[in-house]
Specification:
The chain has about 240 residues and is mostly helical. It folds into three domains: about 55 residues, no CATH class; about 55 residues; about 70 residues. Helix content is about 55%, strand content about 10%. The strands form two sheets. A three-stranded antiparallel beta sheet has the order 1-3-2. Strands 4-5 form a two-stranded antiparallel ribbon. A hairpin with a 2-residue loop joins strand 4 and strand 5. The chain is globular. The two termini are about 25 Å apart.
């Protein structure tokens, strides 16, 4: 639901919190939905997936970065969704195993969800899940436009802010140094080592965080991204 998210962020203030986002979505119809019930339902979905609350550090930093770099919204919110939604994160493993340039169809997502959660849902729900996952990975830039019933697998676009945010997620989970490049979220970007280091260096030059890479040692300092009382491995 990236279009709705863009509408909401487009009218929200820089310091918007959960109450402001709720008011904009439900009372002011920032989501551009026909009924109050639909606005409420859509807002609740967005809140569940993205938090929409600066008290949640993962959302706060993604929101801050997309305000600075609006073109990175899709990639940043995709990483946030992966971090908050286990099913989406698990499906990403299947997508990552599909070679870039290979055609993939909705049926591959149905086969995956049936194997991932055998016997848990009705036949109708398995098909519904597969359509939603297929559409989600298209919106997030991992699949290209449809050619018949298939889409080509793409490598997602990564820029300095997106690469820094992925490293932040891995750093929060205890990764350090060069191991960050192979972290759970950084690896989703599918960058070569040289590309990865170059983008992290670019993020450091933009002042997003402190970066030191000398003698085969990488040090990233995200302490400025934390607020009082927050700590790694507790977010």
């Amino acid at each position: 639901m990236l279009p709705e998210l863009c509408h909401l962020f487009g009218v929200g203030s820089e310091t918007a919190g959960l109450d402001e986002f709720r008011r904009l979505a439900v009372e002011d119809d920032a989501l551009r939905k026909a009924s109050a019930a639909n606005r409420t339902k859509t807002f609740n979905f967005l809140r569940r997936l993205y938090a929409l609350d600066p008290r949640v550090p993962l959302f706060r930093e993604a929101f801050r970065l997309q305000r600075l770099f609006p073109a990175d919204l899709r990639a940043l919110m995709g990483l946030l969704a992966f971090a908050r939604e286990p099913l989406l994160r698990a499906c990403a493993d299947m997508v990552m195993r599909t070679p870039v340039g290979q055609a993939v169809g909705r049926e591959a997502f149905e086969a995956w969800i049936r194997e991932f959660a055998p016997g848990r849902y009705s036949q109708t729900m398995y098909v519904s899940f597969s359509h939603n996952l297929y559409a989600s990975f298209f919106q997030l830039g991992y699949l290209g436009p449809a050619v018949g019933k298939l889409r080509l697998r793409l490598r997602p676009e990564a820029k300095p802010a997106t690469t820094a945010y992925a490293a932040y997620l891995d750093w929060l989970n205890g990764e350090n140094g060069l191991s960050l490049l192979a972290g759970r979220y950084s690896s989703i970007l599918q960058l070569t080592r040289a590309e990865h280091l170059g983008l992290l260096s670019g993020a450091g030059q933009l002042g997003l965080m402190r970066v030191a890479h000398t003698g085969g040692v990488l040090h990233l300092d995200f302490s400025s991204w934390l607020q009082p009382g927050e700590a790694r491995l507790s977010l």
